[in-house]
From TrEMBL:
Topology versus the membrane: Multi-pass membrane protein
Organism of provenance: Candidatus Protofrankia californiensis
Name of the protein in its database record: Major facilitator transporter
InterPro entries: MFS, MFS_dom, MFS_trans_sf
Keyword entries, A-Z: Membrane, Transmembrane, Transmembrane helix
Gene Ontology CC annotations of this record: plasma membrane
Major facilitator superfamily (MFS) profile domain segment(s): 1-445
Principal location listed in the UniProt entry: membrane
Length: 469
């Protein structure tokens, strides 16, 4: 079961990053396509994926998580086939949007199926495996993209089809089907407010480099986002069936890890973009060579995920997350101090790749397992969607701010200085995520936390009292 849901979540995670390296080849096939038009191949996916995660997760909690996972995977696989045979930029953009709808169904339902299938004592380890696979897929995106586009950019999408079909066939027979919570459908107006708000935020971020951070369009979108989020929260507080129960955020473990996940995801997304851009633009490496150079970092993730699982009972999740964020920051600072204009992989890049890989392996699985296991069973899909949405928004914010910090270099020295500023920024927000995680209770205070979080779960489920043995 775990292998099936991991296969399902690998595809959307991989697609977030793998298409980046294929854009030059797509441009060559579609003669006359401008960069601004091509950017929508990435932007349409990012905006729709982020906007629909929570509403679709809430619907899965109300209906069937197994059906939601299989329908999302089928839609993603079919849209991948359509992307591969697209004959124009805008056809490709349209099918990428459909891909994102399927991805928004697969990601939260896959984690909720893991949580529902495993007993409480084993959930943390299962979630770490799920997270490690998603992190590996995201980080190996440039490697896979470099290999596939050497044949054709269409293979970037065709590779999804056999994996998707195999997961569908096996999933229909093997996956559990935990009952959904019966009751009215989630608030439709609240769903619209959240979807438009997240779409406006993501759209403003991805277009900030083209329009400029001070442009009226970017500022207007950010102001509109704030107003829509306030309206969404106000409606959620008084609606009988809100998309997101605010009681979820009153769980200390969930809310703190949510904030830490957002900050670290911003650092992770900016780091991955920075090293790919530097290797290709600064050192002139090919996409394939760059992907292979980056691969050593992701290779550390599964190993450190196991180590994190052994450290958590002794140190507590907050200390493990803080340690991972610190090691990650040290790897990025390595680049800021060591990287020069002349390529030297062993001296300049390798040490930082190893350290960032260790940091990701310690941090991301711990963040997701801590947040997910603090959820009441009836909200597994919704809570998982909130964490995934926070991660996606964090990545979008980190990438947009890094691009703004980098600026428009006018020479090799200016480019190096811009990347150094960007790496200092990445290190700072990673450390901020680690500091926030220290607010999580330590192992000695676990009993009190269980009482608090159980009470919050009861508030979500409408339970009047909680008995603590």
């Amino acid at each position: 079961m775990l292998a099936i849901v991991c296969a399902g979540v690998v595809l959307p995670s991989l697609d977030l990053f793998i298409v980046n390296v294929a854009l030059p080849q797509i441009s060559g096939d579609f003669h006359g396509a401008s960069l601004s038009n091509l950017s929508w191949v990435l932007n349409a996916y990012a905006i729709i994926f982020a906007a629909l995660l929570v509403p679709v997760g809430r619907l899965a909690d109300r209906a069937s998580r197994k059906s939601g996972f299989l329908l999302g995977l089928a839609l993603f696989t079919a849209a991948s086939a359509c992307c591969a045979v697209s004959n124009s930029v805008w056809t490709l953009v349209a099918f990428r949007g459909i891909q994102a709808v399927g991805a928004a169904a697969v990601v939260p339902t896959s984690l909720s199926l893991v949580l529902a299938a495993y007993p409480p004592a084993r959930r943390s380890a299962a979630v770490r495996t799920w997270t490690a696979m998603g992190g590996l897929a995201a980080a190996f995106g440039p490697v896979a993209g470099g290999l596939l586009v050497s044949a054709s950019w269409r293979w970037v999408f065709l590779v999804n089809i056999p994996v998707g079909i195999a997961a569908l066939v096996a999933g229909a027979r093997i996956l559990p089907d935990p009952p959904g919570e019966r009751g009215p459908l989630p608030d439709a107006a609240g769903t619209a407010l959240l979807t438009i708000g997240i779409g406006a935020l993501t759209f403003g971020l991805v277009k900030s480099d083209d329009w400029g951070w001070g442009s009226w369009r970017v500022i207007g979108l950010l102001v509109a986002t704030a107003a829509l989020v306030v309206a969404f929260l106000a409606r959620s507080a008084r609606h009988s069936s809100p998309v997101l129960e605010l009681a979820l955020l009153r769980s200390r473990s969930f809310s703190v890890t949510l904030g830490s996940a957002t900050l670290f995801s911003a650092a992770f997304g900016a780091m991955l973009l920075s090293v790919v851009l530097w290797a290709q633009d600064g050192w002139g490496w090919s996409a394939l060579r760059t992907g292979l150079a980056v691969a050593v970092g992701p290779a550390m993730v599964p190993l450190l995920s196991v180590a994190a699982g052994r450290l958590i009972p002794r140190l507590g999740p907050g200390a493990v997350i803080a340690l991972g964020c610190t090691v990650f920051s040290a790897g990025v600072l390595w680049w800021a101090i060591s990287v020069g204009s002349e390529p030297d992989y062993l001296r300049d890049l390798l040490g930082g790749m190893l350290l960032t890989g260790i940091g990701v392996g310690l941090t991301l699985p711990t963040v997701f397992s801590t947040a997910a296991t603090s959820l009441p069973p009836a909200r597994f899909a919704t809570g998982s969607a909130v964490v995934s949405m926070a991660r996606q928004i964090g990545i979008a914010v980190g990438v947009a701010v890094f691009v703004a910090v980098l600026g428009t270099p006018d020479g090799p020295q200016s480019r190096l200085l811009g990347f150094q500023r960007g790496w200092y920024f990445i290190a700072a927000i990673s450390l901020a995520g680690g500091l926030l995680a220290l607010a999580l209770p330590r192992p000695g205070r676990r009993a009190a936390t269980v009482v608090d979080d159980t009470a919050d779960a009861a508030a979500v489920d409408g339970t009047a009292s909680v008995s603590v043995g």
